[in-house]
């Protein structure tokens, strides 16, 4: 009986978890361009953004893990500013009121671009879990796509994205 339960659990894990990896992006994949409105109704196009790297934080105000990820990003605020790294926060299945309340919180990092997703980002990026972090290099190539990262890990991946930019300049 114990072996049957173990086999069933292993089968369930394979069926449910393995496909999740297939939905994300691999390192080096181009990130899809998006043209949406930011929280203030102004047009936002990813590929028009300037920076040496980009941090996309996909989450929701009602998600405790997402708010925890925001705390980690707050810890690297100075690093983002000092290293010309764009920061975009995309809120899924949220209301404008809830997003504005979070953004008004003095403990929340000032977000240059806050997007209230109308479903376009979810579809373009195959959002299957939140929180989800994407780190992109200057050319919008994926360096990292996955779950939450602590502040030191965020810096590590952002540095990798910036190093790729620096390496391009050497050639």
Automatic annotation (TrEMBL):
<feature type="domain" description="Thioredoxin">
    <location>
        <begin position="25"/>
        <end position="163"/>
    </location>
</feature>
<protein>
    <recommendedName>
        <fullName>Thioredoxin domain-containing protein</fullName>
    </recommendedName>
</protein>
<dbReference type="Pfam" id="PF00578">
    <property type="entry name" value="AhpC-TSA"/>
</dbReference>
<dbReference type="InterPro" id="IPR000866">
    <property type="entry name" value="AhpC/TSA"/>
</dbReference>
<dbReference type="InterPro" id="IPR013766">
    <property type="entry name" value="Thioredoxin_domain"/>
</dbReference>
<dbReference type="InterPro" id="IPR050553">
    <property type="entry name" value="Thioredoxin_ResA/DsbE_sf"/>
</dbReference>
<dbReference type="InterPro" id="IPR036249">
    <property type="entry name" value="Thioredoxin-like_sf"/>
</dbReference>
